[in-house]
Amino acid sequence: MAVAFFVHLALAACIRPLPLDRRLAAGLGGAAMAMLVVAISRFDGWPGRDWAPVAHVLAGYYLSGRTFVAPMPRVEAWLIACDRWLLGNPSARFAAWPRALLGLLDAAYIGCFLLVPGGFAALGAAGRADLADSYWTMVAGAELGAFAMLPYLQTRPPWVLERLAEADAAAPPRPSVRFMRRATTGANTLPSGHAAGSLAVALGVIAALPELGALLLALAFTIAAAAVVTRAHYVVDVVAGLALALAVWGAVAGVRFSG
User: Looking at residue 242, what is its pLDDT?
Assistant: First the structure.
């Protein structure tokens, strides 16, 4: 699955009209990652093999970001219209929320990146490292599936269009804004990798560790809400991300049941 994603990314870099530096970064990076995935898969029994998908997900995010060239105004307008239909004026609505609540949601959004390895660490601590293949198939499938659409659906996240960074220039910016400016690609993923990945982590854990899985489910929906409130994502992104995670979970569960 990871090989298919990175090969697809390399091909997309060749086909899409990209500047040379981005074409080389996404194309050569995708090809190199595909070969690395194959190489690591041959080290059966090596503990690092079970942790390699963390690198696959991170590389998939940043390399797919190199395919972003120009936003699609009509798609952005539709996404904004959906948000306004559901939420009114999102920036004004959420700005009025208590600072403590906004801080909690900021932390949930930023901490989502720790959830992916954290879920597998919990399985390992419980003696269920044997579930590595099914866990990573769900999580990497959801994350990489979200990133795979970026070469074709190119939009800017709402925090860019709503100019939250500029609005916060006169005051200390929220942690989520600082994080998005410094650590993200500046491109919007539709479906949302935050929503897809966090729900996939919970679904990958819940069968083996029901209590922790239930807690992670609650956290996944908190992260999904945080992605909208921080304006990292549109509502449509989040709903599509949750649906993607459920689809991947259903496919993995179906294969296990038929096996």
Answer: 97
Residue 148, amino acid: A
**Whole-number mean pLDDT of the chain?**
90
**% of the chain residues with pLDDT over 90:** 73
Overall average pLDDT of the 36-49 stretch: 84
Distance of CA 80 to the CA centre of its chain: 20
Judge whether 82 and 235 are in contact, CB under 8 Å: yes
Give per-residue pLDDT as tens, 151-177: 999 999 998 888 765 555 556 667 888
Tell me if 195 sits within 8 A of 84, measured CB to CB: no
Rg (CA), the chain: 18
